[in-house]
Structure formats: C-alpha cells, structure tokens
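An example makes the point: we print one protein in full, the chain in one-letter code, the fold tokenised, without further comment:
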Amino acid sequence: MYDYKSATEHILGELRRDRDRQIIARRFGFGLSKRQTLEKIGNDFNITRERVRQIEKAAILKMRASGSAEIERINKLLSEIVQNSGGVALMTDVATAFGASERDGAYVVFLTLLAPDVELIEEDDHLRLAASLAPIYSRNQLIQLLSEIIKTVKEHGKPITLAKLHSKLPSELESATLEQIMRVSKQLAYFEGKWGLVSWPEVNPKSIRDKTYLVLSRHGRPLHFSDIAGHVRGLGSTKRDVTVQAVHNELIKDERFILIGRGIYALSEWGYTPGTVAEIISSVLREEQPLHKDEIVRRVLMKRQVKTTTIILNLQEKEQFVRTAKATYKLKGE
C-alpha cells in the first residue's frame, strides 16, 4: 500500500521555508477536521489573504516542477488508477484505491494536484471533486461531454440505461468512461439501473411523495395505499419513519395520484377518471348513449376499480339514469 502521508511529508520537505510548508499543510487540512481559510492563515502569520494565496500557488508550482522521484512515482500510480477507471475517477474512489480514510482524503487531493499527467477537477455547483487524465479529459472537455450527455437524457425524457444512452450519444466513449463522467456530474442521478436528471424523482426520490410516485410508476398498476407504503419503505432510508398514514396523506394531496377504488390509487397520467361511480357512469353516457348495462360496466371498469354490483346499483338507484329498453340506459333528459 502506498504511504501517501510519508510521500506528502517528503515532498513538503523540499520547500525551503517552514512557513510555506505550514501554509500548504493548513490550506489542505492535513491532520485537521477541515482546511483553513486564507483569512485564518493570514491572521496567524500577520500577512494578507492575497499573500497567503500567492505563497500557496507558488509553492505548488515549485513542487510540480521539481521532477523529483516522489512526484514521478505518484504520477505513475495516479495515472494507473485513473486509467483503470476509464480516464476519469471521483476523488473518493481514488482515495479508496490508496487505502485512505475520509479524514485523510486531503493528502490524496494534494498529491493529485502535483501529478503532471493527471488533472484535479475542482468541485463546484455542477461537478464533484475528481481526477482525470490530462489533457484527454480536461475540465473543459468534461463540461462539453456532460452537456452532450445531459441534452441526450433530456431528449429521451425519462430514466435511461447506460447501454441505451451509450448508443444514442454522438461522441464515441467507452462505457466505463461514460459512467465515470456521469458520476462526476451533480446534474445526473442513478437509481437501480437507470440514469436521469437529478430533479427526476424516478432516479432521485427524496421525499415520501417522490417515492410514492416511483412505486406506482414502477409497478405500472394501481395499488392499495398500505401496499404502496410497504414498497416506499423498501426504497431506502428517509429522514423519518414512513407510516401508512404519511403515504396516504401524500396520495390525497398530490394531483398525480387518483383514488380509483376503496383505498386503491393510480397515477392520473394513466388515464383514470376521478369522481364517484355515478359521475363516471355519467361521463361514459355523455360520450355515447344509450348503452347496454354490460357495456357501461366495461367502460366504467376501465376508469375505476370498483365492484360490478356497485355500478349496477348506481344505474338502478340514481335518478340521473333512466332505462330505455331491457338493460339499456341513458342520461335523464337527454
């Protein structure tokens, strides 16, 4: 296992000034819970924030250009790790390859910054902290590729498998490289075999409401709210326990869900019609009338999950329906 701490100490030891070594160590947060700010370090050394930034930049450039045996060694090792990941790798994966704990990730970031054949992809609002082979997958190249990937996902309009996405992209990328690039993006999410936009609940279900939608969408058929709650629990951890009542509340409030039977809910996008059984019968007869009882039952069952006897009782007992012939009905006054 590579001794990244000893390698860091050896490289820092090549800096002549102890102040420069301390500034680098504190800026990267070696042995600390978090890296220190320019202002904090500047106050401690009685220099400006800008001066701290200049010292940090100059020291890194000097270490990168040293061509020391340690730098060459780390460059070779990092290049192999990133290459084996398809040319792009999250820094968390690189740290794992080093055997570094989360607390020691700062050492691996520092060493990556010094490797001439590897580019450190700084984290921002759109990208996660990563390493890539330079110059093949520079930051600008990654941004360009991700723009193409995200555009393709949007055009597809729903979660997509890696294989299908790979076949749709104009750029020729190895599947492993494509997957790693997508993992770097904060705009994409992966869930149970499919990729999509992070805003899509199908791949990034956060709330109980999102998970409820995902359960119904995946089953492709109506379910009782208690069954939906059970499936929601199986989707993973949430900030609070998922109760049957909590799921039922979301089903009632959200227009994407529609009650079609006793406690049975469907997605409104499936074409089910809300309302009482009598209202559904009325909507069927407005489309075409008169209709035989059996045809009315068939059409109502396409819109709601209720008992056949319930439909027949509504036909017989509600004043808005009148019989025109044997087992044949129409709307009253029409």
